[in-house]
Amino acid sequence: MSAANVQVTLPPASLGQPAGTRMLSVAAAEGRIAVLVARPDGTERLLLLDAGRGRVVGELRAAE
Fold first, then answer.
1. pLDDT, tens digit (0-9, with 9 covering 90-100), for 7-54
2. Residue 60: half-sphere exposure toward Cβ, Cα within 13 Å
């Protein structure tokens, strides 16, 4: 028996954040991908990505 080769292709995704933004953490979250980012202005945001569509579907941030 041999293991089947499985390839998964995801569409390109843009986080829509300004240049200089750093990804701090990435985790699976109920069918989504949660990405914690630090923006150049010092704020942090939690972005929720729909991997199937390759787009940001939600954003959490502290009050500005």
1. 767 666 678 899 999 999 999 988 899 999 999 999 999 999 988 888
2. 6
Instruction: List the end-to-end C-alpha distance of the chain, in Å, as a whole number.
Output: 57
Q: How many CB atoms lie within 10 A of CB 13?
A: 15
The two tokens of residue 21 are 């933004």
Query: Is 50:57 a contact under the CB 8 Å cutoff?
Result: yes
> Can you list the pairs that 14-23 forms with residues at least 24 positions away whose Cβ atoms lie under 8 Å?
14/54, 14/55, 14/56, 15/47, 15/49, 15/56, 16/56, 17/45, 17/47
Q: Where are the domains of the chain?
A: 22-61
